[in-house]
């Protein structure tokens, strides 16, 4: 087997409480690398078209990459691949923690989990043994209590995943928790676990990971570690997006939240910070442990809040009281909800309330005015348990708008059913094409155009060259998410394709170049496009709400500027063309033949 890999997956059938190993052909690993790439191949081979995301035919996969468990920067990530309850298509969701390394130490490149348990269970993996234990006493409990139980009753040093009530109640934005505050947040992976009656997974291994050239790996890490001059923390982004006019405010009706400067930005977070924290085996240390100093939430302890949470549960709801955002963050983490989608759903409900489309009779007495953090905190719990008005908001904005009608779809901020993250595309048009074509729906992690439109000097209000720049950014992230390594240290150190090829080569013993990795990303991205097409998606789904495309921002540098449908379609068409897809976004036969999908072996379970 290739160095860095284990060459096998562990298949667990929950309905039978059985397990077996599945070998991965070397040619598949060489072509798809791991993580996102391997996940695309597994999805194509194993999940039948039209499978119900919450049904027996959907498969839940936890994957590693060739760098997992090594000292490579940011290599403490894991990947979940499944069919999304939010969109009905491809989902890849990432998080940190020990589970990726422990899977490798236990002898596996990933887990494939099928079918549904008869009742709620925990799965404990210890090397080549798997134990299934009754989790009915944990059903209804939060993710924090569940993980504590796992560590006390299985192994305190294990890697662990768990869901909260939101996952049990099948919210389309339920997340999967690890190491308490780390979340695979987007797209509803937690609901897939809940649909399978799977409360938690824990893994402990003791074997090593082979490395082709440990000395060279050590040399690379030491050299790149020297490039870190200061700690980076995501809350500093709020000041940048506010200045750029792309900070979502009042459900994306504005791009600036002046009340947030000094109250919910980096300086405010630093004021309540009590410690640093790094992800497992990472030298970047970009996380913050914070604690509320005074008031009704006094002594609340949290890892975070990160930028997306400050924006979507803060500025987007016009809340500038940091302790309330921290409380909302804590609840989302424990209940198992994505803070981004939750914030967008509540922001949408608040706008509907202030427009008179929803009333207190609809909300069960909740006064859903922007800035009312008490109502937000109450509503989050109702959403997780699908109670009262919370059951309506728990559907996500796409379904909320469908039910309400009255042209509310114009300001339901989502793409393909996945709610917008915390960058308004009208202040940087590269995000418009990114949100529309990204296969898992509106996403900022598959490409981050603000890096060139806000920080890089590229004109944010032009369509020229945007598709090509977005593709370059996506390809870079695709490789990082296949290796699997974290975006943050790679961005801080400014590692490019050639750097990642070096890391892959010294671990695996291969001879990849940066160009080879770029080719791999094209193979992977086109296969994922084919997956979504097979699931019924088309160019009609690569679209954004009217608020984004036809209305202007009232403030900031983008004030008065409109993307417009013509500009949007030009960017989208150029993106398709550059990918080797036709005018409808369907990969051409020439492209399919070029990537030789039809002559490779299928993976079977």
The overall strand count is: 17
In DSSP terms (H or I, runs of 4 or more residues), the helix count works out at 25
**Could you tell me how far the N terminus lies from the C terminus, measured between alpha carbons in angstroms?**
20 Å
Tell me the radius of gyration: 22 Å
Report the CATH superfamily of the domain at 8-204: Aldehyde ferredoxin oxidoreductase, N-terminal domain
- What CATH architecture of the domain at 8-204 would you give? 4-Layer Sandwich
In brief:
This protein is α+β, with helices and mostly antiparallel strands. The chain contains 25 helices and 17 strands.
Can you describe this structure?
This protein is α+β, with helices and mostly antiparallel strands and 605 residues long. The two termini are 20 Å apart. Helix 1 (26-32) crosses helix 2 and helix 19 packs across helix 22 (514-534). The chain has a domain at 8-204: Aldehyde Ferredoxin Oxidoreductase,  A, domain 1, CATH 3.60.9.10. The longest helix is centred in the C-terminal third of the chain and has 21 residues, at 514-534. The strands form five sheets. A six-stranded mixed β-sheet has the order 2-1-6-3-4-5. The chain has 25 helices and 17 strands. Strand 1 (8-13) and strand 2 (18-23) form a beta hairpin.
Main traits of this protein?
605 residues, alpha+beta, Aldehyde Ferredoxin Oxidoreductase,  A, domain 1, six-stranded mixed beta sheet, 17 strands
Can you lay out the helices and strands and say which pair or pack?
Layout: E1 8-13, E2 18-23, H1 26-32, H2 35-46, E3 60-63, E4 77-83, E5 90-96, H3 99-106, E6 110-114, E7 121-126, E8 129-134, H4 143-153, E9 159-162, H5 165-168, E10 176-178, E11 182-184, H6 189-195, E12 198-204, H7 214-225, H8 236-244, H9 266-272, E13 273-277, E14 287-291, E15 301-303, H10 307-312, H11 322-335, H12 339-355, H13 360-363, H14 373-384, H15 388-393, H16 397-404, E16 414-415, E17 418-419, H17 430-437, H18 450-453, H19 466-483, H20 487-493, H21 497-508, H22 514-534, H23 546-550, H24 565-579, H25 589-594
Parallel strand pairs: 1-6, 7-12
Antiparallel strand pairs: 1-2, 3-4, 3-6, 4-5, 7-8, 9-12, 10-11, 13-14, 14-15, 16-17
Helix pairs in contact: 1-2, 2-19, 2-22, 7-21, 11-14, 17-19, 17-24, 19-22, 19-24, 21-22
